[in-house]
Specification:
213 residues; seven-stranded mixed beta sheet; 7 strands
Length: 213
């Protein structure tokens, strides 16, 4: 067999293996998906999701130096470690998770990377431990649908946001996804409005603002 034929066969086989590996990862994610996301499956949280990229998060969140921002459900810190440095030494990123293992994991990664403005809070998203109007912005990426009562959480986020604050919700298609139409209805009940939607319905970012802002 010619070298080109051998090489082509190897490449075809490699692509098949990669495709099979990706399919297996998706199947594992779909069939074992639970809420809250278990720490034992944390490696899946670092896999990039189509359309819910860090670049797009930057575009919709527009984090600014000196701001105080809240993240619900940080997972292993994929977004946390990207957003926190943008806030500078005078800014702060508060992260909330009900699983202390996740918070500890983010803390270790932050220390390794020299990020020192992330503050962990082990709390229930239904009852946020913050005063009214504490945050310039807040965000949740693939987290809102995993919360038992998303309406209550949205109301809590509205309370914790400043009057002209902004909230970003990122949702990816799985068994827990909040569909765009449902988010619009939930937001209105919590005193929020969906100002913009980015991306297709199966993988979107939504920007929410307090009603009247």
């Amino acid at each position: 067999m010619a070298k080109s034929g051998i090489y082509g066969g190897i490449m075809k086989h490699s692509r098949a293996l990669i495709g099979a590996g990706a399919a297996a990862a998706v199947a594992t994610w779909w069939f074992t998906d639970s809420a809250p996301y278990p720490y034992s499956q944390r490696w899946l949280l670092d896999l990039p999701l189509p359309f819910l990229t860090l670049k797009r998060l930057d575009h919709v969140l527009q984090a600014r130096e000196g701001e105080r921002i809240l993240e619900i459900g940080p997972g292993t810190g994929l977004q946390s470690l990207h957003v926190a440095p943008q806030l500078g030494p005078n800014g702060q990123l508060d992260i909330v998770d009900i699983q202390p293992e996740m918070l500890d994991h983010v803390g270790r990664r932050a220390k390794e990377q020299g990020v020192d403005n992330i503050v962990p809070n082990c709390a229930d998203a239904h009852e946020l431990p913050f005063a009214n109007g504490s945050f310039d912005a807040a965000y949740l990426v693939t987290a809102l649908g995993e919360i038992p009562d998303p309406a209550r959480t949205l109301a809590e986020l509205r309370r914790a946001l400043k009057p002209f604050g902004r909230l970003v919700v990122g949702e990816f298609f799985d068994r827990h996804q909040i569909r765009p139409s449902s988010l619009i209805s939930l937001a209105e009940g919590a005193g929020l409005r969906v100002a913009r939607l980015y991306g297709p319905p199966f993988a979107y970012y939504a920007v929410l603002r307090p009603i009247g802002a």
